[in-house]
Structure formats: structure tokens, C-alpha cells
Amino acid sequence: MNKEPVSRELFDEVMVPNYAPGNIIPVRGEGSRVWDQEGREFLDLQGGIAVTSLGHAHPGLLSALQEQSEKVWHLSNVMTNEPALRLAKTLCDHTFAERVFFANSGAEANEAAFKLARRYAWDNFGPEKHEIISFKNAFHGRTLFTVSVGGQQKYLEGFEPAPGGIHHADFNDLDSVKALISKKKTCAVVIEPIQGESGVMPADPEFLKGLRKLCDENNALLIFDEVQTGVGRTGHLYAYEMYGVIPDILTSAKGLGGGFPVAAMLTTAKVGASLAVGTHGSTYGGNALACAVAQKVIDTVSQPEILKGVNERSEKLRQGMMAIGERYGVFSEVRGAGLLLGCVLTEQWQGRAKEFLTAGLEEGVMVLMAGANVVRLAPSLIIPETDIEEALQRFEAAVKKLAQ
Ligand SMILES: *Cc1c(COP(=O)(O)O)cnc(C)c1O
């Protein structure tokens, strides 16, 4: 076994250069605290980008993982398995959904959603109804189909030709959707209820209601990409509940496994029927270990006191960040919902979000960016209040240094 010491420098020698990771290597985590190779401690407001929904080394997740690991890890979809069936039943019980497809990542869940939308329209209306409407700045993953549906041209550059039949409307602008949608051609409209990667930008409730109506009038499916907003992140199990708008397809990943790779596409029985035998699949999708862990995540996060706790923590964190923003003139607003918060940089600090991330690391707090103008926070949904207070102190020290 290779036990050679490794360092951050090795990254540049052995990895393709598509990421630019921070200059420490965390080796251990517990709750909302993480320690690096040198034993330095960090407060984690990154949450593995909205993934470690119950923090690190959560006892319930550890025992769920260990228990299942002693039974069966993997069977493939030639066989079904108990954890996958239980998790699918739980997801249906807790949401609008009646049918579930499991995958391993957000991009894969979205890939399944987009393929299903096309297949459903093909089954019911014919091949001409294949167009997908999404939104500028949207993020849906990095496979060629999902990156094409996503609304950031730079992620597609050099990878063309892209799949066709995709249009991009303006977020929160219903008229821009009206101009693109048609009964004849549109099979689906896909949206993140809160755009995550591109700056934590919430949709207006009236806009989502309008989308629902437009989709109904045009026999188009409404797809919510809740890869980032799902699993308690907004203080609701899924953000569609907060908006009171029910989609036809919903995708979930990130927080679903609490750090174990798993994703799900949720839909109705009527729509789901179009993924008939043999139309789609995934070797690992519905993996028994992954589903056992996700079960524990959903069972925990769906408890009303956990969801209520998200909103209480949100208030504390939001107010703390706003106060720092005002003291140093760095943030113009803190937006988002629950524990997905975006601190928007003022005019004077435009384009400098990465500096806050780096300065935070130096003071022992891990924060995220969402584009160059927003500092994003997505901590554990059960981060202790005292950790929030300490994280705010460390972050303030970082901002103070930056501002000097
Ligand atoms: C992260 C993210 C994805 C992609 O998920 P992966 O697991 O990285 O494939 C898709 N949609 C949204 C909204 C996301 O935040």
C-alpha cells in the first residue's frame, strides 16, 4: 500500500489542472470542524459545497454506513436492493413524487431528467416537441448535455458541437420565457429555484408560479434542479415547498448523501412511465451503500426540529455576515434561503470573492465563492450555534486584514 507522504504541490504534478484547490489538505473532520495535515483547525462553512449536510463523521451516518457495509455493497440493477427500495419509498412519502431514478451525481440526475423530458414528449406528442428552455447563468452539471442546458457559455467553449434544441431565457423574466415556449416544440423548462453556482440568486415566487402556468398551457414539463437547494438546505426538505410550486421532475444530489455520492430524480408515475425498460440506466445508480447512507440523511433532515434549526442558524449567520459587511463596507446584501447564503460584494470589491476564500483559510474558516462577486456559505444543517459565532469571528478577522 502506498503510504508515501503527499502534499498540495503533488496536485499540480499528478492531476489534470481543471481545479485550483486551496493550499491545505484537510485530513479529518468532526461536525463543522476540519483539521489539516499540520493539525490546524478550520471551521467549515463550505460543507463540501452544500454536500456534508450533517457535518463530518456524523454518528448516525457512520453507523448506517458500517451496518450496510457488512451486508451487501453493490448488486447492480440486474437485482434490486433493500436500501434503494426503502429510500425510494421514503422520498415518495415526503414529496410530490411517485417514481424515483437513482444516479451518482447531480449532472447524472439532470441528464436523466432531460432525457426523460424528451422521451415523454416523444411518446406523447412526437419528435418535434424536444426543445428545452433553461436560464442564463444556470448550472446543471458538466456532462455535455447538462453543460449545454446550463447557461454559462464559458463552460461549453471548446467542447462543441453541443446538443441542439436548447434555449436560454432570462432568470426571473417571464416574458423572456413566453417568447421561447411553444406547444409544438417545448418539452421542458428547467430551473434552479435558487441559482447556486452563479451567485445564490433566488427565483421570485411569482415567476415560478408563472412558469408552472406556462408549462401547463404548453404541455411542457417543469423541472426543478434542486441538486443544491434540496435536502433541507433552505429550511424545507425541498425548496419547491417554500415556493408552493410543484414541478413534474425534481433532481436531488449534493446533500442527499451527506458526503457519499448519490443522486435521485423524482417524478410522477405518468411521466416516469416513459423511462421504460431498457431506455436508461446506471451501473452504480441505487448502490446499496449509498442508499443506506442517504436514508439516514433523509430520516434525520426531514425531522421538523432539524428544519426549524436550519432557519434559526440561517438568521444568526445572515445577521452576522451582514454586520461584518456593514462594518467593513464589503457586502451590499446577504441573499438566499436557509443555509445557502450569498454575501454580495459591494461595488468597491467587485470580482474579489476568491480573496475572501483565501483570507478565510488563513484565519481558520472555510467559505465558498459563487462567481467572482459573491461569498457563499453552505455549512452543515446542524452546525452548532457556538461554531457559527466562532466562524463569524474568524471571518471578521480575515475581512479586517483584507480591508487594511
Ligand atoms: C452541483 C450542481 C450540479 C452538478 O452536480 P454534480 O454532482 O457536480 O454533477 C447540478 N445542478 C446544480 C444546481 C448544482 O448546484
UniProtKB/TrEMBL annotation:
<feature type="modified residue" description="N6-(pyridoxal phosphate)lysine">
    <location>
        <position position="254"/>
    </location>
</feature>
<feature type="binding site">
    <location>
        <begin position="106"/>
        <end position="107"/>
    </location>
    <ligand>
        <name>pyridoxal 5'-phosphate</name>
    </ligand>
</feature>
<comment type="subunit">
    <text>Homodimer.</text>
</comment>
<dbReference type="GO" id="GO:0006526">
    <property type="term" value="P:L-arginine biosynthetic process"/>
</dbReference>
<dbReference type="InterPro" id="IPR005814">
    <property type="entry name" value="Aminotrans_3"/>
</dbReference>
<feature type="binding site">
    <location>
        <begin position="225"/>
        <end position="228"/>
    </location>
    <ligand>
        <name>pyridoxal 5'-phosphate</name>
    </ligand>
</feature>
<keyword id="KW-0028">Amino-acid biosynthesis</keyword>
<keyword id="KW-0963">Cytoplasm</keyword>
<dbReference type="InterPro" id="IPR015422">
    <property type="entry name" value="PyrdxlP-dep_Trfase_small"/>
</dbReference>
<feature type="binding site">
    <location>
        <position position="283"/>
    </location>
    <ligand>
        <name>pyridoxal 5'-phosphate</name>
    </ligand>
</feature>
<dbReference type="Pfam" id="PF00202">
    <property type="entry name" value="Aminotran_3"/>
</dbReference>
<dbReference type="GO" id="GO:0003992">
    <property type="term" value="F:N2-acetyl-L-ornithine:2-oxoglutarate 5-aminotransferase activity"/>
</dbReference>
<dbReference type="InterPro" id="IPR017652">
    <property type="entry name" value="Ac/SucOrn_transaminase_bac"/>
</dbReference>
<feature type="binding site">
    <location>
        <position position="282"/>
    </location>
    <ligand>
        <name>N(2)-acetyl-L-ornithine</name>
    </ligand>
</feature>
<feature type="binding site">
    <location>
        <position position="139"/>
    </location>
    <ligand>
        <name>pyridoxal 5'-phosphate</name>
    </ligand>
</feature>
<dbReference type="InterPro" id="IPR015424">
    <property type="entry name" value="PyrdxlP-dep_Trfase"/>
</dbReference>
<keyword id="KW-0663">Pyridoxal phosphate</keyword>
<protein>
    <recommendedName>
        <fullName>Acetylornithine aminotransferase</fullName>
        <ecNumber>2.6.1.11</ecNumber>
    </recommendedName>
</protein>
<dbReference type="GO" id="GO:0005737">
    <property type="term" value="C:cytoplasm"/>
</dbReference>
<keyword id="KW-0055">Arginine biosynthesis</keyword>
<dbReference type="InterPro" id="IPR015421">
    <property type="entry name" value="PyrdxlP-dep_Trfase_major"/>
</dbReference>
<dbReference type="GO" id="GO:0042802">
    <property type="term" value="F:identical protein binding"/>
</dbReference>
<keyword id="KW-0032">Aminotransferase</keyword>
<feature type="binding site">
    <location>
        <position position="142"/>
    </location>
    <ligand>
        <name>N(2)-acetyl-L-ornithine</name>
    </ligand>
</feature>
<comment type="pathway">
    <text>Amino-acid biosynthesis; L-arginine biosynthesis; N(2)-acetyl-L-ornithine from L-glutamate: step 4/4.</text>
</comment>
<dbReference type="GO" id="GO:0030170">
    <property type="term" value="F:pyridoxal phosphate binding"/>
</dbReference>
<dbReference type="InterPro" id="IPR004636">
    <property type="entry name" value="AcOrn/SuccOrn_fam"/>
</dbReference>
<comment type="similarity">
    <text>Belongs to the class-III pyridoxal-phosphate-dependent aminotransferase family. ArgD subfamily.</text>
</comment>
<dbReference type="InterPro" id="IPR050103">
    <property type="entry name" value="Class-III_PLP-dep_AT"/>
</dbReference>
<dbReference type="InterPro" id="IPR049704">
    <property type="entry name" value="Aminotrans_3_PPA_site"/>
</dbReference>
<keyword id="KW-0808">Transferase</keyword>
